Amino acid sequence: MRIPEDVRRDIPLTSEVIYFDNTATSLTPKPVIEAMDEYYLRYRANVHRGVHRLSQMATHKYEESRKVVADFINARFEEVVFTKNTSESLNLVALGMEDIFRPGDRIVTTPYEHHSDLLPWQRLAGKKGLRLEFIEGDDGGNLDLSDAERKIRGAKLVAVQHVSNALGVIHEVEELGKMAEEEGAIFVVDAAQSAGHMEVDVRKLEADFLAFSGHKGPMGPTGIGVLYINEEFFEVFEPPLIGGGTIEDVDLDGYMPAEPPERFEAGTPNIGGAIGLAAGIRYIQKIGLDRIESQERKLVKRITEGLDELEVPWYGPRDLKKHAGVVSFNVPPLHPHDVAAILDERNIMVRSGHHCALPVIKKLGINGTVRASVHVYNSVEEVEIFLGVMEDLLRNLE
What CA–CA distance (Å, rounded) separates 17 from 157? Predict the structure, then answer.
């Protein structure tokens, strides 16, 4: 498969707009939509509880999708739980593990987290009388690993994002995982911005829990997410949601939970979403994660070079080996929303605001950023058009 040409042919919208809002959600290729359409049109039925052939087919495809996800992140089949999104997955971890905490226990995270990997821990700390501590870092998002080692020592849980959605920095998650493992701390990874863009291997990362969404890097549908649960925590993790499908037996005196993963998936799941996610993973695997990462690095290099030439301030690590496909910038004195609106008039889609990472914005002392984020279907030609529009914008400000 040629990139980005062949991928762009599978995504008609790329011929109409320049889509630089991939951190929020990526575009969906035709094979993903076709896989979901096949479910809805040819074997639409509920899973697990039916003996008729449509239910049997739906169950087979649903569980086959779980196997695709498990292989994708190097997990075991039963360690993969389908959820709505990363936010739900991380909330489930905080709720399902809260009984193991005692007043004074420490949770360690970073000041760069998306709200989804901050608020659940803040709420848990408030409920249980825990101490929430943050690993120090600079304005580019680079973590102080010496400070990380000190703070992780004796911690109960460590939660960290793989890639910052606000700064694009790739954190040293593998090293942090080793530190947590040595201390016996639970290690939680937010892989929302890395899955589908680079390798995510739960074994290499020493992850106990890992979360990501289907609609971002994997180019799947919205409404489907993944929670990886290390099998060592099956008996410790208390399912926050129970009911249909989560039990082996029930009588009026109580119930016996089902084996994982069914134990952790209450009610009818997003069957079409799981099938679409698997199709998205197969699609990006056909391209190759190494080629995806290489294309994004090339685009980020040109974007940041171009912004430097235009003297437009941008945020994130200067070492582009640590910079994923997310570039945040500002055009003083314009508000980020005004810049995004001007770009929209030229058919360039970017995100503006605080990106659900208010502590990062406050740390930088700004009121938000404009964020351009890329995927494998974006081209160098699109970047040059974007930089040309930025040059015109700056000229009009003079």
Answer: 43
Contact 23, 165 (CB under 8 A): yes
Catalytic residues: 356
Instruction: Pick 5-20+288-397's CATH classification: 3.40.190.10, 1.20.120.420, 1.10.260.40, 3.90.1150.10.
Output: 3.90.1150.10
CA distances from 95 to 15, 85, 388 (A): 44, 16, 48
Per-residue pLDDT tens digits for 43-78:
999 999 889 999 999 999 999 999 999 999 999 999
In whole angstroms, give the CA distance from residue 130 to residue 117: 16
* pLDDT one-digit tens code per residue, 308-356: 999 999 999 999 999 999 999 999 999 999 999 999 999 999 999 999 9
pLDDT at 398 (0 to 100): 77
The CATH number of domain 31-285, selected from 2.170.190.11, 1.10.3730.10, 3.40.640.10, 1.10.275.10:
3.40.640.10
Q: Where are the domains of the chain?
A: 5-20+288-397, 31-285
List of E strands, the chain:
18-19, 80-83, 106-109, 131-134, 157-161, 186-190, 209-213, 225-229, 247-251, 254-257, 314-315, 326-329, 348-349, 351-353, 369-373
- Quote the pLDDT of residue 49: 82
Can you list the residues of the chain whose pLDDT is less than 50?
none
DSSP, residue by residue, 180-234: HHHHT-EEEEE-TTTBTTB---TTTTT-SEEEEETTSTT---TT-EEEEE-GGGT
Q: Quote the CA–CA distance of 377 and 9 in Å, as a whole number.
A: 9
Question: Which pLDDT belongs to residue 199?
Answer: 98
Question: Which strands form 326-329's sheet, in the order they lie side by side?
Answer: 314-315, 326-329, 369-373, 351-353
The residue type found at 258 is: A
Do residues 229 and 79 lie in contact, with contact meaning Cβ atoms separated by under 8 Å?
Answer: yes
